Amino acid sequence: MVKRVFKVLLTFILIINMSPMNSISYGESAPRDEERIRSSIEDLINYYEEDDEYSFREIIALNYTSEDIDEDIKKISDKLIIQDNDSASSYAGNIIGIIGCGKNPRDYEGEDYVKLLVDSQERSGRFIVKSGDQHPATLAWSIIALDMAEANYEEEGAVKALLEDQNEDGGFTLTPDVDTAAMVITALANHRNIEGVEDAIEKSLEFIKSNQLESGGFPFMGSDNPYSVSCVIQGLISNGINPLSEEWKKSGNSMLDALLSFKSGKHFEYKTKWGREVNSASEQAFMALADLYRGKSMYQNIRIYEGGPDGENPSGELVIERLGNDSFRNGEEAGVEVEIKNNTDKTEEVTLIIVLYDIDKNQMINYTYVTRRIKENDDEIVAGGFLIPRRGEYEIRAFLWDNLRDMNILADPIYIEVK
Q1: Is residue 415 predicted with pLDDT exceeding 70?
Q2: Is the confidence at residue 4, as pLDDT, over 50?
């Protein structure tokens, strides 16, 4: 079975409407917060639309907020800026960006960035290409990138090296540095099975909380800024914690309030007495908003794309095909019948979800689902449906997932027009 790594295409509509977001619930503030997040993301997508080049951060944020990744990946795949300096952080950034482009970082323009980074791992567990790579943030980025690439590296050694860097106060540098602590807990989130990780994460969370400002944000060199709060949002989400919960508000202000205070027009900026900075502020805010939008960490949900050729149903895959080609109309009952084919060599448990999607409001308004166990090299016909409202613009979408908890996409979705 081919692993569908861009499952983030369509999971958001079901994450919001069917189940808690990675055990995250926005509570009473959900409608307002959801609208602010959605609106800010739309502004950022428009802001980046005319750019000819993207950093790896911009690439992964554009990927994760896409509602049509098959189309959007074509627009961004050739715009990645490859960092050509030799350092562990550059290799890690390149790996993340290449994966975000839908390409393979093991063979990108003749270079194997995964091997370059893996080969740089020393007996200490750290990834050292040059002297500046000793920083714990670099080690965290390396772990995140290699996890995304599903690489074979000395995971326990790398994680233990991170744990060694932790101070008594829960931070990882000599001065209070919330950014680094947030990056570290993002990297550690995938490795809770290793001894000491759970305690280290809890200690870091206490450190981060103790440094929260009245604005809801966090300081960097004593100043509230968009970079730190963006890192913390991503760090908390990667660990299944709601950054917008009451627990993480200060004087009634949430992290979203703090982050959006740096929004200027369609982008974000950080003003100081020396001037204003836009690029890093915008791209880091974009990533944080993308994680809030999906309710799950982009680092844990985007992997190397392994899709089969267009128009083919290769052996070893699960496939869904619609039976019939009738279109549906407003005010009618929509009955969708599909055939699920299990071309693998083992019995698969699958969940078919049929969704009624409001195009104008950009949200799901109804759904039905069914779970089946289908034997190897067998098929089954499944049907579902609902009443389409008389007014509005709608589309019917059918997805095949492994289950409603993990939501791994197992086959290409089906889209049906409503006239």
Answers
A1: yes
A2: no
Strand 223-224 and strand 275-277: pairing?
unpaired
Q: Which of the listed residues 232, 266, 301 is the one where a domain comes to its end?
A: 301
Q: Which domain covers residue 46, as residue numbers? A: 7-301
Specify whether the CB–CB gap between 350 and 370 falls below 8 A: no
291 and 327 fall within a common domain: no
Helices 136-148 and 178-188: crossing angle, nearest 10°? 30
| 141 Cβ contact list (under 8 Å, min separation 6) | 88, 89, 92, 93, 183, 187
Beta bridge partners of 141: none
Type of residue at 88: A
How does DSSP assign 41-78, residue by residue?
HHHHHHHHTT-S-B-HHHHHHHHHH-S-HHHHHHHHTT
Point out which residues pair with 341 in neighbouring strands. 319, 379
374 and 276, same structural domain? no
pLDDT given at position 90? 97
In a domain, 309, yes or no: no
Question: Residues 314, 2: contact at Cβ < 8 Å?
Answer: yes
How many angstroms separate the CA atoms of 115 and 348, rounded? 34
pLDDT at residue 64 tops 80? yes
Task: Return the CATH number at 183.
Answer: 1.50.10.20
Contact indicator for 393, 358 with CB cutoff of 8 Å? yes
What are the φ and ψ backbone dihedral angles of 399, each rounded to 5 degrees? -125, 150
CATH at 331: 2.60.40.10
Strands (E), 250-347: 263-264, 267-268, 270-272, 275-277, 318-322, 333-342
Backbone angles phi, psi at 418, to 5 degrees: -115, 120
Q: Are residues 322 and 288 in the same domain?
A: no
pLDDT beyond 60 at 375: yes
- Using 50, 70 and 90 to split pLDDT, how confident is the model at 2? very low
Give the domain-ending residue among 242, 275, 301.
301
Q: For the chain, what is the domain count?
A: 2
Integer Rg of the chain from CA: 22
Which tens digit of pLDDT belongs to each residue from 296-330?
999 999 877 654 334 344 445 888 888 887 778 88
Lowest-pLDDT choice from 87-101, 135-149, 367-381: 367-381
